[in-house]
Amino acid sequence: DQQVKQNSPSLSVQEGRISILNCDYTNSMFDYFLWYKKYPAEGPTFLISISSIKDKNEDGRFTVFLNKSAKHLSLHIVPSQPGDSAVYFCAAPRGAGSYQLTFGKGTKLSVIP
Amino acid sequence: NAGVTQTPKFQVLKTGQSMTLQCAQDMNHEYMSWYRQDPGMGLRLIHYSVGAGITDQGEVPNGYNVSRSTTEDFPLRLLSAAPSQTSVYFCASSLLAGGQETQYFGPGTRLLVL
Questions:
Q1: In angstroms, rounded to a whole number, what is the distance separating the alpha carbons of residues A26 and A94?
Q2: Given this model, what pLDDT does residue A111 score?
Q3: How far is it, in rounded angstroms, from Cα B32 to Cα B47?
Q4: How far apart are the C-alpha atoms of B99 and B67, rounded to whole Å?
Q5: Does the beta-carbon distance from A96 to B45 stay under 8 Å?
Q6: What is the pLDDT of residues A49-94, one digit of tens each?
Q7: Which residue of A6, A32, A43 is in closest CB contact with B107?
Q8: Whole-number mean pLDDT of chain A?
Q9: Mean pLDDT of all residues in B24-53
Q10: Residues 28..87 of B with a Cβ closer than 8 Å to A: which?
């Protein structure tokens, strides 16, 4: 039973354009969400997070939007750069205060120069 | 400051063999965990620990053992390897400070069980 879902396995975007990566969740008790970025042959690295008390969080070119009523979040990258090409994972702690993360299957982003 | 380190980077085992995947962190993090990543799947939690002497099971613990004798080290043991354990294994660590702390991942160990 996958509680965090990323339904797009891959996404291709032209350099300079916006990349939008989507994530849906089923557990309404989730109160914190994270995005991790993973390059081949490396471990995931933390990118950005959002608490359920917010609907938006920005960090430079990266913005995460949260729509609690739809149980949906999205990661926007503007402008996209070739170095952003990686697999992006959406994740959530299994419960309030939990450190056990449940991950989506990931979306492979390719930014075309 | 090395962060989270994992050894070996790659290992080939025969079915039934045992081995230990090593994980160490130098950030004095209380929380450590092991995940496995399979093709087309997200990372799935195997075991975790909130401090020396304390471990617990995650989502997919069968076939794996862990122990935590020091804050720095959190080895993962495969007692009798099976082809289904072919995967990439990641160790992660974080502080314990009430939640929402960033978890730092190691570079991974790629395991092939024949």
A1: 12
A2: 98
A3: 9
A4: 23
A5: no
A6: 999 999 999 999 999 999 999 999 999 999 999 999 999 999 998 8
A7: A43
A8: 94
A9: 94
A10: 31, 33, 35, 40-45, 48, 50, 58-59
Count the alpha carbons within 13 Å of A78 in the hemisphere toward its beta carbon. 8
For B75, the token pair is 């080895």
- Restricting to A residues 11-30, those with a Cβ less than 8 Å away from any Cβ of B are none
pLDDT at B39: 86
- Mean pLDDT confidence for A38-44: 95
Burial of A113 (0-12, 13-18, 19+ CB in 10 A): exposed
One-letter amino acid for residue A3 of the chain? Q
Provide the 8-state DSSP code for B73.
B
Tracing tokens 């076939």 back to the chain, one arrives at: B63
Is B96 in the A-facing interface, judged by CB distances under 8 Å? yes
Which of B43, B56, B60, B110 should one mutate to test binding to chain A, selecting the residue with the greatest count of A CBs within 10 A?
A: B43
Nearest to A103 among B42, B96, B101 (CB): B42
Mean pLDDT over the full length of chain B: 94
pLDDT of B60 reads 95
CA–CA gap between residue B79 and residue B59 (Å, rounded):
18
Phi/psi region, residue A31 (left: phi>0; alpha: psi -120 to 50; beta: rest), is alpha
